Amino acid sequence: MAVSMHVDAVTRTQMVRKKWFMRFFRLAGNAPEPVTYEFEGDVL
Description:
There is one protein chain. The chain has two helices and no strands. It has one domain. By secondary structure, it is mainly alpha-helical. The mean pLDDT is about 80. The chain is about 50% helix and about 0% strand.
């Protein structure tokens, strides 16, 4: 469940940051782009 929440949050953040409005008015900030990690099912 935590993995799916992480992937969903990263995907939504990336989508919002790519919108022209956010880039034009520099509302996305200067923090690094979030990345999705590959989680192994055996470890979890």
